[in-house]
Structure formats: structure tokens, C-alpha cells
User: Which sequence fits this backbone?
């Protein structure tokens, strides 16, 4: 395995030098001059720069989008304050160069730093230098920059007070900007909702280069950027969030069940129990191979958890021996897929980088009615096949059932039992065709068991397979976006497109799945 990783590293290095040797596409000289006049030179990395490839790859999490075939930005701008954001937008608009915004680099299709279309002319606005977190303890609020990672946010708010959490995702290297932009599911959502349900204000730069707060942007735009893909409307510099309270210690457990240990019966039962448990208990499931791994976090003591599980979910057979009592901050440093490595130093949350050892492809679904026991038997048979990946099942219910479908652009809260995330991994970039046949076929099979009309999808698990924008006369069309827009946003897609038309009618902030203006 070590030899394979070293070889992969060498290959990526070779790809990097190959990319550097490619001729740079021409772009307006006036654009370059504008950047040089408005921004310090050390914040702009052109393709000719010796640091360009290193900066481009600094937060790429998926090797399949870091190859000699990747459509690269013309340059990378790394602003350090709001004035730089404004200048970057104005220079781009004036000279016809669009931008893509990267906070953590976790976009599942890489659209924050690459294009799926070879003829796109764009540059990347990398927010890695904008990652401050300022906590107001008396108000229990914080301002967090979009370039901060979730790990940096968690560490800043809870290091000196383990009872202060914020509901967001489980992967510590995910950027705040992307997480909040698409919703923000996580282990605390059954208690406190999504990240976007707890955003109080924001500061953003619009298509005119204006710096706006919630009052300045108005309620329609503030509604849109919280879950509707803020990159479609402007560049969000920072977010004001409401902080929460948890006990001094929380309890976690990880219990695996193989097929011959009743995995299918327990999993079938979990579909009803998981979403209906008290909102301070979340049990999610990883299905891989012939095992269902039940993982949990409880905002309370081991003894209380054992009693609750005995009453509500005795089928799992959980006992006090399964308990691990830690602080909430310590729980965020654990692997979401295993809850392993108890005792991992909290400082690991400050690490912004991930290994690029494996490429991946993801998809998602929402389940509103329990899948039958017979269907689960069929599902497990797929995990005997070559090239199989795994699925994560995250329960809703609790607070989520109180949120109306139009409260934010994210419509998948009330009435949802759980979300399914599909993932498949492979080493290297996969060559000209990623090895996703198993995932494509399995996703097709699962269509009969999940939401329909439309088949719902979570925008933060972006999937270009469900459709891309159609551009006519340099503007994305509303009708062309419906095929994917309604799957992410349901009826909220139309309202998002109306907001887009009001704030960015020329479609400057655009990618393959950005909100089109309803003109």
C-alpha cells in the first residue's frame, strides 16, 4: 500500500510538471493590468507563475480533477480583505473573465476550481486567506469567514468552552463557504437544524462590486444564499452564526452488524426508529460489504443512553461497554465513517489538507418511506460485486420536521426519514473514464426505493450527471436548468431564479449548475 501511495504521489507530480509545460491560453491583457493595479502582486498567481500548480492543488480533494485534462483557471486570486474581493469582481466583469469561488475545495464535481467545459474562460477566487473566526460570548454568536474550514470553526468556538457547538458537517476540512452555501447537514441537525437554519447575517460582494450585509442585500437575497448556492449570486465574505449549547461530555458508539448477525432486520427497524428518537440522539449507518455499521452521538451520559436504547432500539443490543464519553469538540475530530481513533488531538481540526490518495464520485437520495426488508436483501447483494463502494444513511426528524420546505432554499427537511449518500473510490485519476459503473448501476436500481417526481438530491453532494446549464446568448436559461434545479431545490428553484434575475441578470456568477436568471 505504501508503495502504491508513493507511486501515486510521483504520478501526480509528473502530471503537475506536464500541466506547467502546457501553453497558457490567451486572455485580455487589460484584465491582467486591472488585477495588477488593484491587487498586490503576491496575491495573484498566473499560469506562468512557478507556484501556480502548487496553489491550484493546495485544496483539491479529488485527484480526478487534477490531471493534464483538467480545464484550469487563467489565474488564482487569493484575497486577504473585502477590498480585494471587490476588485476581483470588478476587474472580471469589466474585461469578461468570470470567476469561481473556492473555500475548502470539497465541491464533489470540482466546480470551485475547474470547469467541465473546455472553452470556459475563468479564474479562481481562493478564500484560504480569509478564515478568521470572531466569537461574541455574551451573545453566543460568531462571525466566521468563508475561507475557514469547519475544523477551524469548531476549534475556535469550543476550545475554551467545550459546551459551545455549531451544527454543521462532519468532515473538518470542508470550507465554511461551501457548507453554508448548500445547507449544512451534520450530527447536530436533529437537535438544532442545518447550518443555514442558524445563520443570522452575512457580508457579501455582489455583481456590481458592492459590499453588502443582510440589511443591504435584502431578505430575498439573504434567503437565497443560505442553501441556494451562494456562488450563483456573489461572493460571501463572512457569516454571522448562532452558537448552541451541549453538555460538558457527549457519548458516542460504533456497533457493526454482519448479515448473519441480523443486519437487515436491524437496519429495516432503524429506518423507523432513527428519525423518531429524541433529538439529542443521532444514529447514522454505513453500509459496506456485508456489514451495517451503526454510529451514534448522544448529548448526554452513557447510562442515560443505554436506558434510551433499551426502550427505543433494543434490537441493536447496545450496552455500556459500547460507550465512549468525550467532549463535543473531541467528537468532531473523529472519523465520521467509523468514530475510530478516540483520543485524537483536537489540534487535528486545524489541518486544512487531505490526502489525495483516492479519487471519488458521489450521489445522493432522500428516503421518505421505509425500504422493505426484502429490498434490503437485494441492496446487500450489490455489495458483493466488484467495484462496490458504500452508502451513508443520515436520519432526519427532530428539529428538521419543524422546518417548512420554503423556509430556506433547502426543501428536504420536513417529512424526510433520512438522506442517502453514495460513494465510490479508486486509486489515481481513473484515466479517461472514471470507474463508476457500479455506482451508476446501483443508483439506477435504487430509484424505485427513494423519493420521486422529482428524485430529490442534496446540492452539497453535487452531481453533474443529473444535468447542466444550457447557455444561450451568454446567459444560462431557466428552462435548461429545471432538469437539475428542481431536484436540488424543488419549487424553490423558481424563487431562486427570480432572485438571480434581480441581482445578477447578466449571469456573471456562473458555472455548470449555477442558478439561471428567470428573465
Assistant:
Amino acid at each position: 500500500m505504501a508503495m502504491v501511495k508513493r507511486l501515486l504521489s510521483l504520478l501526480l507530480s509528473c502530471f503537475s510538471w506536464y500541466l506547467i509545460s502546457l501553453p497558457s491560453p490567451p486572455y485580455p491583457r487589460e484584465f491582467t493590468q486591472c488585477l495588477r493595479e488593484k491587487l498586490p502582486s503576491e496575491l495573484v498567481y498566473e499560469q506562468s507563475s512557478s507556484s501556480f500548480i502548487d496553489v491550484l492543488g493546495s485544496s483539491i480533494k479529488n485527484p480526478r480533477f487534477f490531471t493534464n485534462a483538467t480545464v484550469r483557471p487563467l489565474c488564482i486570486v487569493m484575497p486577504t480583505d473585502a477590498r480585494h474581493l471587490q476588485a476581483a469582481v470588478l476587474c472580471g466583469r469589466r474585461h469578461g473573465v468570470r470567476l469561481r469561488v473556492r473555500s475548502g475545495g470539497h465541491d464533489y464535481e470540482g466546480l470551485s476550481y475547474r470547469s467541465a467545459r473546455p472553452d470556459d474562460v475563468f479564474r479562481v477566487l481562493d478564500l484560504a486567506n480569509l478564515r478568521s473566526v470572531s466569537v461574541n460570548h455574551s451573545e453566543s454568536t460568531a462571525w466566521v469567514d468563508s475561507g475557514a474550514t469547519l475544523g477551524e470553526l469548531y476549534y475556535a468556538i469550543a476550545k475554551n468552552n467545550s459546551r459551545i457547538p455549531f451544527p454543521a458537517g462532519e468532515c473538518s476540512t470542508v470550507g465554511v463557504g461551501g457548507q453554508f452555501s448548500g445547507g449544512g447537514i451534520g450530527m447536530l441537525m436533529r437537535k438544532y437544524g442545518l447550518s443555514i437554519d442558524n445563520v443570522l447575517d452575512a457580508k457579501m460582494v455582489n455583481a456590481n462590486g458592492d459590499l453588502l450585509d443582510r440589511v443591504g442585500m435584502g431578505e430575498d437575497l439573504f434567503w437565497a444564499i443560505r442553501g441556494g448556492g451562494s456562488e450563483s449570486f456573489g461572493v460571501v465574505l463572512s457569516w454571522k452564526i448562532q452558537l448552541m449549547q451541549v453538555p460538558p461530555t457527549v457519548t458516542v458508539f460504533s456497533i457493526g452488524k454482519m448479515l448473519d448477525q441480523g443486519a437487515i432486520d436491524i437496519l429495516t427497524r432503524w429506518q423507523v426508529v432513527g428519525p423518531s428518537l429524541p433529538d439529542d440522539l443521532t444514529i447514522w449507518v454505513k453500509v459496506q460489504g456485508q456489514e451495517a455499521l451503526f454510529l451514534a452521538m448522544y448529548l448526554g451520559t452513557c447510562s442515560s443512553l443505554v436506558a434510551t436504547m433499551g426502550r427505543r432500539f433494543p434490537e441493536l443490543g447496545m450496552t455500556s461497554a459500547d460507550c465512549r464519553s468525550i467532549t463535543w469538540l473531541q467528537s468532531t475530530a473523529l472519523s465520521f465513517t467509523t468514530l475510530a481513533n478516540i483520543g485524537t488531538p483536537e489540534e487535528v481540526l486545524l489541518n486544512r489538507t487531505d490526502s489525495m490518495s483516492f479519487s471519488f464520485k458521489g450521489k445522493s437520495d432522500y428516503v421518505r418511506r421505509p425500504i422493505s426488508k426484502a429490498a434490503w436483501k437485494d441492496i446487500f447483494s450489490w455489495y458483493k460485486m466488484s467495484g462496490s463502494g458504500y452508502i451513508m444513511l443520515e436520519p432526519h426528524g427532530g428539529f428538521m420536521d419543524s422546518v417548512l420546505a420554503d423556509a430556506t432554499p433547502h426543501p428536504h427537511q420536513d417529512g424526510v426519514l433520512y438522506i442517502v449518500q453514495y460513494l465510490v473510490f479508486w486509486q489515481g485519476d481513473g484515466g479517461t473514464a472514471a470507474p463508476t459503473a457500479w455506482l451508476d448501476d446501483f443508483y439506477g436500481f435504487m430509484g424505485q426505493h427513494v423519493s420521486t417526481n422529482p428524485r430529490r438530491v442534496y446540492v452539497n453532494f453535487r452531481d453533474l450527471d443529473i444535468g447542466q446549464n444550457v447557455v444561450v446568448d451568454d446567459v444560462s436559461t431557466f428552462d435548461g436548468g429545471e432538469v437539475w434545479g428542481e431536484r436540488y431545490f424543488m419549487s424553490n428553484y423558481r424563487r431562486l431564479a427570480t432572485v438571480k434575475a434581480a441581482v445578477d441578470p447578466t449571469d456573471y456568477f456562473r458555472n455548470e449548475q449555477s442558478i439561471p436568471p428567470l428573465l
